[in-house]
Amino acid sequence: MKGYCFDLDGTLIDSMWIWDRLPYDYLLSKGINPPENIGEKLKQYSLKEASSVLKDMFDLKESNQQINIEMENMLKKFYEEQVELKKGALELLKNLKTNNSKIALVTATEEKLLLPAIKRLGIHEYFDFIQTCGNVGFEKYDVNFFKILINRLGLATKDVFLFEDALHSMETAKKLGIKVVAIKDSTNLSDWDKICMTADICLNDLTEYNLEDL
């Protein structure tokens, strides 16, 4: 048996652009004209971490918790009503489920945001479990996140595959010997050369993945 672990944003759903825009739009709502690349600078952080960083960077009067709540509210409607699957996502999950595989969703996005989206999009049923940074207490740049994942899967590391769009997560997973399948997204193009040096397989979209590739 093999374990297939999927990142959510930028891998299964087309949503990274909204995360990239979120800190920029949030700061604009506070009357602050932020640098255009503020989303790029914060892309490795969870929403909670980004809230703290924004408060410190721009001396915001709101508490970390209030910033987090306000940005969550900006995201909530998008996930509930607008976000769509990336090309090939549903078909791949169906194929893996019929192939006696364990399938996990591994993401920095909070469950209360992602659950309405994955239920609406019809992919919730394919996951054996959902592991978020919030529910294990470690970010995806921390090897402990992936150690917990491997333990929950109950499989040898050589049988664990991570589908991911973020370089920092790939680099962390590779430290433990997890095989990485990189998915191209409009927001990871600046890292794509490094990604292709890190990952075991690099794909333009999920339709290109063959179960026999690894």
Strand content: 5-15%
Strand order of the largest sheet: 3-2-1-4-5-6
What distance lies between the first and last C-alpha atoms, to the nearest angstrom? Answer: 13 Å
Largest sheet: 6 strands, parallel
The CATH top-level class label of the largest domain: Alpha Beta
Tell me roughly what share of residues is in helical segments.
40-55%
Low-confidence stretches: none
Count all strands and give the number: 6
Helix and strand content put the structural class at: alpha/beta
Superfamily at the CATH H level of the largest domain?
A: HAD superfamily/HAD-like
Number of domains: 2
Describe the protein:
- It is a single chain.
- With 214 residues, this protein is α/β, with parallel strands linked by helices.
- The chain folds into 2 domains: 138 residues, HAD superfamily/HAD-like (Rossmann fold), CATH 3.40.50; 67 residues.
- It is built from 10 helices and 6 strands; from the N terminus they run βαααααβαβααβαβαβ.
- Strands 3-2-1-4-5-6 form a 6-stranded parallel β-sheet, sandwiched between helices.
Explain briefly what this protein structure is.
This protein is α/β, with parallel strands linked by helices and 214 residues long. It has helices spanning 16-29, 38-41, 47-58, 64-82, 89-97, 111-120, 133-136, 143-153, 167-175, 192-198; strands at 3-6, 102-107, 129-132, 160-164, 179-183, 201-203.
Attribute tags:
alpha/beta, Rossmann fold, 2 domains, 6-stranded parallel beta sheet
Secondary-structure topology with pairs:
Layout: E1 3-6, H1 16-29, H2 38-41, H3 47-58, H4 64-82, H5 89-97, E2 102-107, H6 111-120, E3 129-132, H7 133-136, H8 143-153, E4 160-164, H9 167-175, E5 179-183, H10 192-198, E6 201-203
Parallel strand pairs: 1-2, 1-4, 2-3, 4-5, 5-6
Helix pairs in contact: 1-4, 3-4, 4-6, 9-10
